[in-house]
Each structure stands twice: as structure tokens, then as C-alpha cells.
Amino acid sequence: xxxxxxxxxxxxxxxxxxxxxxxxxxxxxxxxxxxxxxxxxxxxxxxxxxxxxxxxxxxxxxxxxxxxxxxxxxxxxxxxxxxxxxxxxxxxxxxxxxxxxxxxxxxxxxxxxxxxxxxxxxxxxxxxxxxxxxxxxxxxxxxxxxxxxxxxxxxxxxxxxxxxxxxxxxxxxxxxxxxxxxxxxxxxxxxxxxxxxxxxxxxxxxxxxxxxxxxxxxxxxxxxxxxxxxxxxxxxxxxxxxxxxxxxxxxxxxxxxxxxxxxxxxxxxxxxxxxxxxxxxxxxxxxxxxxxxxxxxxxxxxxxxxxxxxxxxxxxxxxxxxxxxxxxxxxxxxxxxxxxxxxxxxxxxxxxxxxxxxxxxxxxxxxxxxxxxxxxxxxxxxxxxxxxxxxxxxxxxxxxxxxxxxxxxxxxxxxxxxxxxxxxxxxxxxxxxxxxxxxxxxxxxxxxxxxxxxxxxxx
Length: 459
Known about the structure:
The protein has helices at 21-35, 41-54, 57-69, 78-92, 97-102, 104-118, 128-132, 148-167, 172-186, 194-207, 216-233, 241-258, 265-273, 286-304, 320-346, 353-372, 375-397, 406-424, 433-445, and strands spanning 310-313, 316-319. The chain has 459 residues and is mainly α. The protein has a two-stranded antiparallel sheet with strand order 1-2.
């Protein structure tokens, strides 16, 4: 993972990624309307509709925030609104779906837009995960049983170390070491133990420098860990869904933007356990990134000059060479997924390997679809990968209740195949909402083997 020393805007552009031209044109029109001080809602609504059809759900959510804030785009707030619109339009033209979901620059704008709306709408709150994890299922995480004496001792140490971190004292470095030690002591061996996730998130916040810099999100994370520790003391066995979502978004952000290196393998495996994937660095040097930027600029110039051959899949315009490469990848991934799915459903109770292979095939397809810009395909493939990851986990620990229901998994696989057949025919894939919702429900109901908790703990 690359640290905060890199330039802040942000991931590299994706020269072979798809474009949603209708949304780009509508946002450009909204910019002109804003400068002319006329209504911007019409073009913004058109952009939101196009982005929804493309399955670019994080971008649709950002556009929705622009729509909600647009009635207040005057006076002192007008420059902020225009800056958000300008940066979002620029990011959209970079065709990088992970940047559009995880960009700190876009999230800062998103927070400002919603803060303006909140002045007129009581209780209106947003968070990073609202953008980063839009449309994604959240795997449940557990809290393992620990003795009351151990828990009380760890909590006393944690609270003592938390204070200098929250106040930004000079002793914050040593205090962060102590917080990490406490979290490590709480973590159990279960794959979905929430303190394992918290520990990985804490390490990431330290590597990227946000913890030491007193970043508000880092402080909020450490404070929420303290609240979670208190809830564990009251017998909570299933981690609050809000905590899992927030921790995942913080852990995933930099990996999604900058990729992962070999030393990040454990963090990447943990992200895979929760349905999130990253790209790997091949040659993460300044020279390689300059070469990539140059290639991206040349590809954009070629497209602008009409030299790139494009194929239209509904509202999505894809480079024909990238499209053909994707079809080959998708064909191989679906073949592997089908074979592994059949083997997993027929496997002996102790064999998790077929489910693991199915998860990897689905994740490979999801990553390829995300790189091309097929948002609906990417979301459904990643969710299917998560379902199979959960299936493999349940087989390993011998917990039938932890296996996602079979029928939604089968339906998702069938829907994914139908979507890819339409893509291969040069037709826009259908909306993934229905199979994704059914699969999400199956994933989120299959609790970890170590947890049995009331439904109220899922809030």
C-alpha cells in the first residue's frame, strides 16, 4: 500500500475504462448552468439516472448529494458547490470506479454537500462507507468470548491510552502502540472475529500516517473501538454492522486507490474475506507510474481524436479492445466458477477447496468488470465471491448455519451468466438489484460460527 506521501488526487486514471458519456455531458451542462446561475437540477438528475443504469452506484450517490444540495447553492456555499461539481466531473472522466468510490477528495466534498443539507434536515448524517461500500453486502463479524477479568484489564489500558490519541498529545505514538497491543489481545482466531478486522484497520491507519496526524476519522475509529469493547462487556456476540462497515471502508480505501504490495498479503486476504478486492503493484516505482500516466494521456488523446474504436453497451461506452479482452477473461472465469460451484455443492462436508476456487473465480470476474466499467456485473460478481468465501469458511469451521442459503447463490450465478451473455451480444446488462438483494440477504443472515446474537445488534 502506498502512504500519504503520494499526491492526493488520487488513484491513477484508467485509460481502458468505460465512460458514461451521458453523465459526463450532463455534469458539464450542470457546471455551465451553475456559472450562469440557472437551475442545475435537470442535468444532475439525468446524470444520476445514467450512473444508476451503468451500476456506478457510488457516483450515483454523489450525484444525489449534488441534487439535494443544489437548492442551497448560493451565497457563501456556491463556491463549495461548484468545486464539488468540478472535481466530481473531472474524476468521472478518469474512468476509475475504485477512485470514484474511495477518493478522499470526493468524500470531503460529499461531506460538505450533506452538511449543507443537514442544516435543513435534522439528523442527516453521512460517512465514508456510504460511498465506498454503496450496494455491497456486509459479512457479519463476531466478538469472541473472553473472561471478565481480561476484558476489564484491557479496557482500562485502552481507555488510558485513548485519551492522548484523541487530544493529540506528544505521547500519542506510544499510546497508539498500546492501543494496537490491546486490540491484538482481544482478537480471536475466528476468521470473522471483529477485532482481527479492527487490528488490520489500525495498522493501515498507522502506515498511511492518518493515526499519527490526528485524522478525525482515525480518532473516531479508536473511540468506536472503545465503545465496542464496552458493548462486548455487556454480552454482545455479533459486532454492530455500522462498526464493520466503517472499519472496512477505512481499511479498503488506500488499497483500492493505490493497490497492494507483497507485504500487504494478509490485509488483502482479510479484505477478500469481506468481499473486497484490490489490484497488486507490478512495479510500484515513480518511473512506472509516470509511464502509466503517459499511456493514460495518450489513450485519452486517441479517444478524443476519434481514433479509439468504442462499443456502446447501453449508457456505457467501452474501448473495443478492452471489451474483447474482458470477454475472454469473463468466459474463463465463468467456466471456472461453474465447475467450482458444482464441485462445492457436491463436496464432502470437510472440503472447503471448491468453494474457495469459486470465490476466486467470482472475484476475478468482478475485478475485470470493475476495470472495464461494468458496474452491475462487478457488484454481483464480488457479492457472489463473498458468498462463496463465507461458504468455504463455514465448511472449515463445521457450521452449517454459517453457509449462505443455496438458492440465492444459484440465482446470482444464473443472473451473472445472463448478464455476461448480453454483454457478449453487445447489449447492456440488466440491473443487478434483485439478485444482489437476495444474495445480500443470504450473506448477512449467515452469522459467524462463534456468534449467536439478537437482531438488534445488527444495527
